Amino acid sequence: MSARILDGRMIGRAIRNRIKTDVAELSELASATPGLAVILIGDDPASRVYVTNKMKACADVGIRSTLIEYPKDVPAEALIQSIERLNDDPTIHGILVQLPLPPHHDVRAVLHAISIEKDVDGFHLYNVGGLVVGDTIFSPCTPFGVMKILDHARIPVEGRNVTIVGASNIVGKPMALMMMRRDATVAVCHAKTRDLAQYTILADILVVAAGVPNLILPQMVRTGAVVIDVGINRLPDGRLVGDVDFEGVSRKASFITPVPGGVGPMTVTMLLVNTLSAARRFVEQTHGPIPAPVHPEDITQLA
Ligand SMILES: NC(=O)C1=CN([C@@H]2O[C@H](COP(=O)(O)OP(=O)(O)OC[C@H]3O[C@@H](n4cnc5c(N)ncnc54)[C@H](OP(=O)(O)O)[C@@H]3O)[C@@H](O)[C@H]2O)C=CC1
Ligand SMILES: Nc1nc(=O)c2c([nH]1)NC[C@@H]1CN(c3ccc(C(=O)N[C@@H](CCC(=O)O)C(=O)O)cc3)C=[N+]21
Ligand SMILES: [Mg+2]
């Protein structure tokens, strides 16, 4: 068997084309161009590359974005004040604080200062809680993007065995909650899991987000499984790889996401989706209801 490639660049492009139309429509209808503020703290070169990519993606669909930069030793109060100013700024609909923060910063205090209406990353406690009970405002972009990949390929989730490798707050845990909401049977593995293969082999859908190259080998994957590789690892030779042995696992899986070109582009796409959604909410709250965009499905919803 040779797995079919789930092409995140292509799926992302299709969604972005629709966002572009919706952004133009919203700009015209309510003269509200969606605006995203990106806060970058410190001088991590990888973070800078990601931030640049996100802002470029915004520009491509007509979303305005502003970069706010701070040195790594910025005082906590200055950071919180900056976020509060953005919370009050009517031209800003989404606020993203690029992670990881330099050491010594209190990640929670920073994330929780963001207005829940502008929390386009979905990292605020309110949105995390919303995910648990099933009525979140914003879904975290990476697992949201994974759900969109599965839906696009018409891969059913209900009743299937889903194993998630990685239990972080930004990927593994919200992924588990989204899969539960879609009535999957979910196992969540992490660094202290004994005998990882025992869980991965059961999976109809295997989502891997550990940050360990070649963590998932062919013998750990069930024939015909759907394999979603969230991992992003830069090897010493400069190559970018995921957490899955792509060559080997491709021979057993029915579908697989490549790295690059799989989940990564979908993460950025869902950030655009959430920012559009935030702008629509803002307009509706200040001007009253506006007509829904004319698409067969609502791209801003988890479904
Ligand atoms: N494609 C995309 O859009 C995105 C990609 N990423 C990538 O996904 C990966 C994970 O990111 P993130 O969740 O932020 O990372 P974290 O480092 O926050 O979490 C990693 C998780 O994987 C678990 N883990 C680590 N090693 C193993 C192992 N050997 N076996 C089983 N589980 C293990 C950890 O377990 P424990 O909890 O016990 O420590 C932890 O739960 C990274 O490569 C990151 O670059 C991240 C965000 C977006
Ligand atoms: N507040 C916050 N929100 C995030 O969503 C967030 C974050 N902080 N910190 C870092 C992680 C990581 N992340 C990625 C986004 C895009 C790609 C992406 O576009 N990847 C391309 C390749 C990019 C490359 O070539 O390096 C791909 O997989 O094809 C990857 C990873 C978002 N994150
Ligand atoms: Mg983390």
TrEMBL record:
The keyword Repressor does not apply. This is Bifunctional protein FolD. Its EC number is 1.5.1.5, 3.5.4.9. The keyword Hydrolase applies. Catalyzes the oxidation of 5,10-methylenetetrahydrofolate to 5,10-methenyltetrahydrofolate and then the hydrolysis of 5,10-methenyltetrahydrofolate to 10-formyltetrahydrofolate. It comes from Bradyrhizobium commune. Residues 6-121 form the Tetrahydrofolate dehydrogenase/cyclohydrolase catalytic domain. CDD domains: NAD_bind_m-THF_DH_Cyclohyd. InterPro entries: Aminoacid_DH-like_N_sf, NAD(P)-bd_dom_sf, THF_DH/CycHdrlase, THF_DH/CycHdrlase_cat_dom, THF_DH/CycHdrlase_CS, THF_DH/CycHdrlase_NAD-bd_dom. Belongs to the tetrahydrofolate dehydrogenase/cyclohydrolase family. Homodimer.
